[in-house]
Amino acid sequence: MGVLAAALTSCGSEPDKRCVDGRSYDAARGYKILDSKSCSNKSGGVAPGTWYYGSDNGGGYAKSGTFEKNKAVSRGGFGCSSSSSHSGSSGG
Question: If you average pLDDT over residues 54-65, what whole number do you get?
Answer without folding.
Answer: 89
